[in-house]
Amino acid sequence: MKELLENIAGMVRRKVQELPDEFTGDEEVSIGASGSATSKIDKFAEDAIFDFMRRNNVDLNILSEEAGLIDNGSEMTLVIDPLDGTANYHARIPFYSISLAIGKERLGDITHGLVMNLLSGDTYYAEKGVGATHNGTEIMTREFNRPGALFLAYVGNSTNPETWRIMEKPRRVRSLGCASLEMCYVAHGRADGFYFNCDDFSKRMRIIDIAASALILREAGGELFDLKGNQLDMKFSLDDRANFMALGDRKIKEMMM
Known about the structure:
Layout lengths: L1 H16 L10 E4 L5 E3 H16 L5 E4 L3 E3 L6 E8 L1 H5 L6 E7 L8 E6 L5 E5 L3 E4 L2 E2 L11 E4 L8 H5 L5 E3 L4 H9 L5 E4 L8 E2 H13 L3 E3 L15 E2 L1 E4 L4 H5 L1
Parallel strand pairs: 3-5, 11-12, 11-13
Antiparallel strand pairs: 1-2, 3-4, 5-6, 6-7, 7-8, 8-9, 9-10, 13-17, 14-16, 15-17
Helix pairs in contact: 1-2, 5-6
């Protein structure tokens, strides 16, 4: 499974990098299965994945942001976000990724996950029960130290005001615009937590956004919780949306609550 995910991600990275400068990736071409507008670059990346799977006879089911659920009769489903951080891509900010995960029907039963920065090629990977890696080297979350704490958070026009109270607790806060990579930074011990609290239900996180990075974080020693403090689980459905906190050190939860 690792080789399959690496091959898919590497192929999409090459194709995105080969796009001409005049490619108008921010053009909206349709409305995806999730109800969100589909930009030209999102559709380009998704089509590249589907073409790869057809040519290589990969018969996994697919759950994708744009196409929705495609049932190929398999027990396992490939959960994909073809390009996470689309706004960063359009702004030419080098922080956007592809997110790929394999599981059965819920966040909790995902067995393999990969997140790749589509510009740098930096790759985070995890297999359930085996651990998490960054470019092949094992990673772990870090112990929380409040004087030097760094949090990542969603900041936008639908940010819940509770976010500002939470963000008074760490020393520093950043909003980087790509949830899958931000959660991987928590897994890697580069940050202590990622907080997502959005008032607009339609903009809350879906399984496709966090399927891979959730496994990577958990295998690195961290955990995800809903905003009531319960361990986060989600169905393989674009209708299931959540606010949550992804923490490297579980003792942070009490402070957050």
